[in-house]
Amino acid sequence: MNDLWIIYALVFGAALFGAQALYWILIRSRSERKIINRRLMLASELKDQGAVLSTLHRERGVSILADVDQLEWLHELVMQSGLKLDLTRLLIWVTGLIALFYLVFGVWLGIGPAGLMIAIPAALLAGYVILRRARAKRIALFSEQLPEALDIVVRGLRAGHPFRVALGLAAREMPDPIGTELGILLDEISFGLEQQVAVDHLYERVGQEDLSFLSTAINIQSQTGGNLADILQSLSRLLRNRAKLTLKVRALTSEGRSSGLLLSVLPVLIFLVLNFLSPTYFGALKGHPLAMPALVVGICLLSIGNFVIYRMVNFKV
């Protein structure tokens, strides 16, 4: 009888936890999704729009790097990647990558302290590639969202709203990254920054090439007048056509990208498989004086091949 009550209690507890899980999945997650971008979430927490704008500006890039002319490009890369990195986090990530590559070259391959000379540039290159990929992914998502955001602005303008109100509609309706970026644009204009300068700041923060068209259209219209709704609608149609052409080009060049990926992964994969099947297979190479030059030459040739394939399958539309 006691065992039966234990079973009843376990069934009751499982049903209770299951109902709680369904509540969180169906109710709470839906209410949280209503706050669709970072700016709206900060606005609900801070209540002061100036503090929201200041927080978003601090999250963009590494400000200390912007003061150094030689490292300003790194500040722009971090800012356009959308990653929340300050100087401390950036140094921690670089140090971690150096330690990881040193374990591979210095310890696992048995190169010793000389592996640090390879680990440092390899870590810097890996960090640069990670930032570039994050930037490309964010710009691609921004490009996908931009025509829809322009359509929202156009509908607001045709409904009789001024440009700032129509821009605010897009900032509230669109998810990140474009929702927050348009919100920053709106806040900068609202706090007294000239519209032309604010739009140029948007282009600098995102780095998406099509934003130059938007910047030119808005700046010319603000100076000479004209129907901004028609201009933005034409720009939206142009961006959609370019996106279709870009997707068609990517489909045609997919074989080249697959070949580049396979040729890059194949040497490493063969090395790992052989080292797993026969751990002593590369034993004679560890202490050989030609091992390091051969490794450097192989990495250089592999990098050159990847660069050539990249240039063959990636070009502007």
Could you explain the architecture of this structure?
- The chain has about 325 residues and is mostly helical.
- The model has no long low-confidence stretch (mean pLDDT about 85).
- The protein has helices at about 1-35, 40-45, 50-60, 65, 70-80, 85-110, 115-160, 165-175, 180-190, 195-205, 210-225, 230-250, 255-275, 285, 290-315.
- It is globular and about 80 Å long.
- The N and C termini lie far apart (about 75 Å).
- The chain has three domains: about 1-35; about 35-245, no CATH class; about 255-315.
- The chain is about 80% helix and about 0% strand.
- Pfam families: T2SSF.
- One of its GO terms (cellular component) is plasma membrane.
- It is found in: Cell membrane.
- Keywords: Cell membrane, Membrane, Transmembrane, Transmembrane helix.
- It is a multi-pass membrane protein.
Distance between the termini: 76 Å
How much of the sequence lies in strands comes to under 5%
Overall radius of gyration = 26 Å
| Fraction of residues in H or I helices | over 70%
Q: Would you tell me the structural class of the helices and strands?
A: mainly alpha
What is the arithmetic mean of pLDDT? 84
Q: Indicate how many domains the architecture comprises.
A: 3
Q: What kind of sheet is the major sheet?
A: none
Broad shape: globular
Overall number of strands: 0
- Encode the helix/strand succession as letters: HHHHHHHHHHHHHHH
Subcellular location: Cell membrane
Organism: Bradyrhizobium stylosanthis
Main location: membrane
Keywords: Cell membrane, Membrane, Transmembrane, Transmembrane helix
